[in-house]
Amino acid sequence: MLHSGAFEAQAVAIFNVYDYVIDHLDRDLDGVMYKLEQTARYHSKIENFYGEFFQYLEEPLIQALREKQFENFKARDEELMRTLFRWMQKHMTLEMESSQYEGTTGGGNYDQ
């Protein structure tokens, strides 16, 4: 794949959303859900972007978590993070489909 500054910026923004979810899931579920929905609405406006595309970030996210946690990142942690990732992806995909169906425009910067 050719280097794309725009793609890289979007990937970093999505990683920031994932980081927010991981950091806030246990104390701000409403904020987490809002962040995921806002992200999905933003992406629903991008032509030819499908929720399944979020899946391409699963392995890079797991790798980043491994590097951050070093030897403390056990198999059970990886399994838990993969389950969390699939939940985030499913929630964003359903929100994207809902936004497209309803014709909502959503909007705004999802990385606030």
TrEMBL record:
Pfam short name (any one): Globin
GO molecular function: heme binding; oxygen binding; oxygen carrier activity
Origin superkingdom: Eukaryota
InterPro entries for the chain: Globin (IPR000971), Globin-like_sf (IPR009050), Globin/Proto (IPR012292)
Residues covered by the Globin domain: 3-86
Keywords annotated in UniProt: Heme, Iron, Metal-binding, Oxygen transport, Transport
TM spans (from-to): none
Similarity comment: Belongs to the globin family.
Name of the protein in question: Globin domain-containing protein
Organism: Ridgeia piscesae (Tubeworm)
